[in-house]
Q: What sequence folds into this?
């Protein structure tokens, strides 16, 4: 809409990518002349992003594009990357083209040497562009066509005469999947009493003529693959080891260790109690006094320290006292003092392990 004197605004509707650029506004005044202003219009166009695998066949000797990511009709041009970054064995090729309407189309291809190992590997195409609120992430699962990789499963090295319903399985890893399976025995078709159904071979009863090599071949539209297994027929079954043998052995070893631990603990406790009970106890001279002042003595075998102690009797009636004559220094030993009758009952006395006798009711100081 062209501007007017009443409203000099410039309205652009609809906005196209080609509308981007520098816009100038001129105002003629009198007597100051013409005034001019400039502004830059930037147009953002959101792109259309797509990503898809590229079907390739394994076995080539040069790199091929295995995935393609396209950001079409965006402005400014988009930035494309692949994740995880730095994929081993992969390279990236990116091409950017400006369209007639001033938008851009960016194409990025993931290149590698096609092998069965990258089949169904997942990669992400990440598109960053100013018109996008956040990066656009597109996941791609790689598709590589290759002939079958075959493995024969089911032989347990224990096929014996008369064993029933043993099965061999032909496992095929192929893209596209294998559509045909063929079994052979010693390079010849399998015998009539063996049932071959697609990828399975069933033997109802094992016989001696089954000795030899069984081969499975799998075929798809790319090619064929095969695998073999050597079968040995035995006269009798091979004894199988119990699955619980390891658990039993572990239990026995654990039990022995527990017994050793308990035995060691009991031995330690018994030895500790024996040492505690056998501690030295050396009772000193015991003095017994009567009410009339007479004192009786019962002594244990003396040591050098004990021999330095001499009993003395105070003049007062009914008192007993033991005094060391060794002079200053610590007093060694204990004295039991009891005031009572001269004919003291033996039931009130107690024998010690070293042969001495002390009173059960004596007071020791």
A:
């Amino acid at each position: 809409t062209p501007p007017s004197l009443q409203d000099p605004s410039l309205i652009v509707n609809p906005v196209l990518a080609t509308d981007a650029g520098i816009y100038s506004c001129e105002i003629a005044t009198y007597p100051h002349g013409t005034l001019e202003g400039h502004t830059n219009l930037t147009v953002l166009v959101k792109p259309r992003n797509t990503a898809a695998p590229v079907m390739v066949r394994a076995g080539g000797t040069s790199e091929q594009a295995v995935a393609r990511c396209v950001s079409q009709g965006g402005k400014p041009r988009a930035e494309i990357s692949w994740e995880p970054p730095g994929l081993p064995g992969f390279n990236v090729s990116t091409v950017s083209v400006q369209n007639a309407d001033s938008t851009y189309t960016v194409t990025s291809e993931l290149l590698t040497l096609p092998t069965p190992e990258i089949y169904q590997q997942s990669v992400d195409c990440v598109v960053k562009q100013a018109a996008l609120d956040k990066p656009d992430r597109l996941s791609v699962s790689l598709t590589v066509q290759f002939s079958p990789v075959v493995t024969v499963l089911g032989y347990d090295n224990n096929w014996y005469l008369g064993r029933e319903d043993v099965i061999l399985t032909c496992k095929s890893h192929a893209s596209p999947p294998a559509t045909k399976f063929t079994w052979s025995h010693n390079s010849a078709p399998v015998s009539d009493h063996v049932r071959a159904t697609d990828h399975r071979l069933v033997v109802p009863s094992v016989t001696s003529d089954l000795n030899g090599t069984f081969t499975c071949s799998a075929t798809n539209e790319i090619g064929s693959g095969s695998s073999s297994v050597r079968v040995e027929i035995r006269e009798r079954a091979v004894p199988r080891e119990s699955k619980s043998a390891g658990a039993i052995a572990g239990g026995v070893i654990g039990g022995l260790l527990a017994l050793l631990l308990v035995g060691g603990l009991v031995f330690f406790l018994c030895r500790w109690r024996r040492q505690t009970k056998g501690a030295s106890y050396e009772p000193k001279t015991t003095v017994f006094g009567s009410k009339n002042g007479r004192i009786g003595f019962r002594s244990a075998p003396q040591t050098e320290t004990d021999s330095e102690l001499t009993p003395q009797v105070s003049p007062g009636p009914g008192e007993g006292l033991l005094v060391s004559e060794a002079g200053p220094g610590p007093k060694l030993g204990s004295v039991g003092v009891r005031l009572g009758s001269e004919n003291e009952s033996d039931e009130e006395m107690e024998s010690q392990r070293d042969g001495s006798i002390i009173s059960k009711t004596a007071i020791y100081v």
